[in-house]
Design goal:
Blueprint lengths: L4 H20 L11 H6 L11 H8 L10 H14 L3 H27 L10 H12 L5 H5 L4 H25 L5 H14 L9 H13 L6 H31 L11 H20 L24 H19 L4 H13 L20 H15 L7 H25 L2 H11 L4 H14 L7 H14 L7 H11 L7 H13 L4 H15 L6 H12 L6 H15 L2 H13 L5 H13 L3 H13 L11
Helix pairs in contact: 1-5, 1-6, 1-16, 3-4, 4-5, 5-6, 5-8, 6-15, 8-9, 8-10, 10-14, 12-13, 13-14, 14-15, 17-18, 18-19, 18-20, 19-20, 20-21, 20-22, 21-23, 22-23, 23-24, 24-25, 25-27, 26-27
């Protein structure tokens, strides 16, 4: 007996949610990792006790950089904190719920695409559900869902998917000769909301253009509407190219634009010619050994032939894109999938100063690849009917789902995940630092514990890796200092040498500032060595004003060096020459704490900069 379509749709939607939840459920017991800590765990602005307007306003400003960067995602973290504090389970559960919503939206989007006459015959609701299931339960998606901070990506796509559904509906109305512009405007509005979670929602026009080039082909019953669509997209493309060339690109071509990285703009772009094919390999053959989560040890390309795979990757990507263009009218769904894969990487594989590789950048791109593959499989002629295709696709879905569940279970155990990431990627210092830190935590700060020794050994191994950051030395110094063990001079030496010679990025700044903060927490450290380390960091280039103020306070409290304190507090306001309230705040705090000499020095410099006319408190 054949189920009516509405019941079949509901049944498939239920199965999608149930099976996807089953895959990810073992991972909910895992811990926070990597960027979860600065964005959530130690970010007091998202630590809401109750869900009210003031706490949400505070959370909306919690993302750095930018006063209102990604407010929607940050407010969702605040809601999670109000419910469960710092228990990672509730954060991962919320991310899973959003992923389940996205799974249903992908199902409806694919189903909507398949009813298009240009998609070709032979599609079914079950086919749409199968594509959605493979997308949702693919091993590559595990880190996007269970790595809590990537809720930014997951939540942003929720609104992009809604926008695409809205856009398709509006365009179908225009094809039928009815009024569809309100729906198109609504799709733009939804994409704008998505940008409040992450900037990748700005790619919506590229996704919509891909639809027009393939499935929709700018059709409308009214010739005027069709022409207007073409004109709008052409004008938008020209305007976008102009903005990119004259506004976006120049800052990244500046001599010091990539000072905080160990690669240049040229090297970054070349490396993406290898990264994108690697992503495709992870989608097609998602072996556990290929999904390393950390890619800090990924080798950059220094030239077209270094390595040679850079050149081959460039040829492959050009051929793939050219094929999509050639197929856009012959096999529109295949072309759409390829276009969506490239469009999804327009930001992260471009000139922007981002890290070279991250798995979550494929959260939407995977759907494009699955659409293209599904269209190719549909076209394979079968003499004895499609039964063999069904068996093959079912086996792939089962295999991918099983691999995803294994990976999810690994993410659900903190120690298992840390050891697994080191075993499959032994040259990653981030994986090494995670494992070492976990060992030290398991030792309960007892030097006689075997875990303490394991932690020290792993920190030592990480610190001696080629091009390693100062984080392992930070760990070694801190674990010794907090347990009353001797801090070796060689650790200070190596850390200082790295700060003086390596490109200054977030890891270098975090390593040094964390030691300073621990000193303020009462940890006994060598103040002379810490001062040299902090001074070496400041000497590498302009830093945020608060870092100079912090060093000035350190000079007063621990070094008893008033001249150094004068210089640092003055430098702090010089680095922020347009912020009069900041200068007033520094002067007031110094005066309140009895440091009149430093307060006068800051006031005199602020006055010369035109920041202040009266001393704080004077009228």
């Amino acid at each position: 007996m054949k189920l009516p379509s509405k019941y079949l749709h509901s049944l498939l939607a239920f199965l999608l949610v149930a099976l996807t939840a089953l895959v990810y459920w073992p991972g909910l017991s895992g811990s926070f990792i990597f960027d979860d800590y600065p964005n959530i765990v130690t970010n007091s602005r998202v630590h809401a006790e109750v869900v009210d307007l003031p706490s949400l306003r505070t959370a909306a400003r919690a993302y750095e950089p930018g006063a209102y960067g990604r407010p929607l995602a940050m407010m969702s973290f605040a809601v999670d904190h109000a419910i469960g504090g710092k228990d990672p389970w509730i954060y991962k559960f919320t991310s899973l719920l959003i992923h389940l919503v996205n799974t249903l939206l992908v199902f409806w989007l694919v189903k909507r695409l398949m009813v298009s006459p240009r998609a070709g015959p032979g599609w079914s609701t079950t086919a749409a559900a199968t594509i959605a299931l493979i997308w949702a339960a693919h091993p590559l998606q595990v880190s996007s869902v269970l790595y809590v901070v990537q809720r930014m990506e997951v939540l942003s796509l929720t609104f992009v998917l809604l926008a695409l559904l809205c856009y398709l509906h509006g365009r179908q109305l225009q094809i039928d000769g009815r009024r569809g512009w309100p729906w198109l405007a609504g799709s733009a509005f939804l994409a704008g909301i998505g940008m409040l979670s992450k900037e990748t929602a700005a790619l919506f026009p590229a996704f919509a253009l891909s639809l027009e080039l393939t499935i929709l082909q700018f059709d409308a019953r009214s010739l005027r509407t069709s022409r207007l669509l073409k004109t709008t997209y052409l004008a938008g493309a020209i305007a976008g190219a102009a903005v990119f060339v004259f506004w976006v690109l120049p800052p990244y071509m500046a001599p010091h634009a990539f000072d905080g990285r160990d690669f240049t703009l040229y090297e970054r772009l070349l490396t993406q010619l290898r990264v994108l094919p690697m992503y495709l390999g992870q989608m097609l053959v998602p072996l556990p050994s290929s999904l390393t989560f950390y890619y800090d040890a990924y080798a950059k390309s220094t030239g077209w032939l270094h390595p040679i795979s850079t050149l081959w990757g460039g040829f492959f990507l050009l051929a793939l894109l050219s094929t999509a263009w050639w197929l856009r009218k012959r096999m529109p769904l295949t072309a759409l999938g390829i276009f969506w894969f490239f469009a999804a990487h327009l930001l992260t594989s471009n000139v922007f100063n981002l890290e070279l590789v991250f798995e979550h950048r494929n959260y939407f791109a995977l759907l494009g690849v699955l659409l293209a593959l599904a269209d190719l499989v549909r076209r394979i002629p079968m003499r004895d009917g499609p039964a063999l295709k069904y068996v093959g696709v079912g086996a792939i879905a089962l295999c991918f789902g099983g691999l995803a569940m294994i990976r999810s279970a690994t993410w659900g155990n903190e120690l298992l995940l840390a050891t697994d990431l080191v075993s499959i990627n032994p040259t990653s210092q981030r994986a090494s630092s995670d494992l070492a830190t976990l060992y030290v935590g398991m030792s309960d700060s007892n030097p006689d514990s075997p875990f303490y020794s394991l932690g020290q050994q792993e920190f030592e191994r990480g610190s001696l890796m080629p091009n390693s950051s100062p984080l392992p030395e930070h760990g070694l110094i801190l674990m010794a200092a907090t347990t009353g063990q001797p801090v070796k001079a060689e650790w200070w030496d190596r850390m200082e040498q790295k700060v003086r010679s390596r490109p200054i990025g977030p890891q270098e700044v975090i390593a040094v500032r964390a030691l300073m903060e621990q000193r303020y927490e009462g940890v006994e450290l060598d103040d002379t060595r810490l001062s040299r380390l902090y001074s070496a960091l400041l000497a590498r280039g302009p830093m945020p004003p608060q870092m100079y103020a912090q060093y000035g306070d350190f000079a007063l409290k621990y070094l008893k060096d008033e001249a150094l304190a004068d210089h640092m507090f003055v430098t702090a306001i010089e680095r922020n020459p347009d912020d009069a309230p900041y200068a007033q705040k520094i002067i007031s705090i110094l005066a309140m704490e009895g440091h009149s000499r430093q307060a006068n020095a800051v006031w005199e410099r602020a006055s010369s900069l035109g920041l202040l006319k009266n001393r704080p408190g004077e009228h």
